[in-house]
From TrEMBL:
Pfam families according to UniProt: Amidohydro_2 (PF04909)
Database matches in PANTHER family: AMIDOHYDROLASE (PTHR43569), BLL3371 PROTEIN (PTHR43569:SF1)
Family: Belongs to the metallo-dependent hydrolases superfamily.
UniProt-recorded name of the protein: Putative TIM-barrel fold metal-dependent hydrolase
Organism annotation: Stella humosa
Amino acid sequence: MAKPRIVDAHHHFWDAERNYHPWLRDQPPIPFRYGDYSGLRRVYLAPDLLADAAAYDVVGTVYVETEWDPRDPVGEMDYVARLRRESGLPSVAVAQAWLDREDAPALLERLAGFDFVRSVRHKPRANPAPGDGRPGGMADPAWRAGFAELARNGLRFDLQTPWWHLHEAVDLARAFPDTTIILNHTGLPADRSAQGIADWRAAMAGVAACDNVMVKISGVGVRGQPWTVEANREIVLTTIDLFGTDRAMFASNFPVDGLCASYDEIYGGFERITAGFAAEERARLFCDNACRIYDLTPRGG
């Protein structure tokens, strides 16, 4: 039987022994949503990903910036270019860019010069809990001025923010309709209480109404709990219901989500949850949407 064909729409490679990633090198460790992340302080490159994903035909991948040394975001893409020459992966990349810095316009122009860079990510400042009503980073004029430079450079934006800031993402999407925004990690639905799910769904519905917003179904692990179909079925199906099968895509977030589950448990879970979908719908979620949204040519065409 042929292996299922996938494009992993969100993963990381790193070698913190050779390159400076503050969160992987410095002490003490930073607060992390999955808790202890000491298991990530190791080399993780293309052979490791392909070994983890051995049950699947990985025809393409999207590398996402790794909190590399913030003084040298171009250096990370130079490193990715070398990885591509050595292993053929990743297919495309999401680069680091600090949108609220004065050099943002020049930096975005340099990043767009890499023929494999499709998007950038700068996690906007977020409040620690939904009850905190202070504006987040997406409302900052300097940050938005940097964001305004994306379309001119043909770049998308990968947005990682908790669901209680998605009203700001709605405003951003409407203010910049020509920029594709790709919501990372399903809006981070960590609170699985009935009220937590209801509030997350309402926030997701708002941003899903914006046609220029896509979503990656990934990063849905919960600290201290196993990754199971039962735990994540509602999250996955609700996201697909809101965004449709044309604007959603599956991703591993490896090696980070390896803290919660194996690659097979995550992708096998996605397979089981969507078992009742039409074949063309599953093809879009597992492969085709990532190719279209990130302008990625899969191996084998």
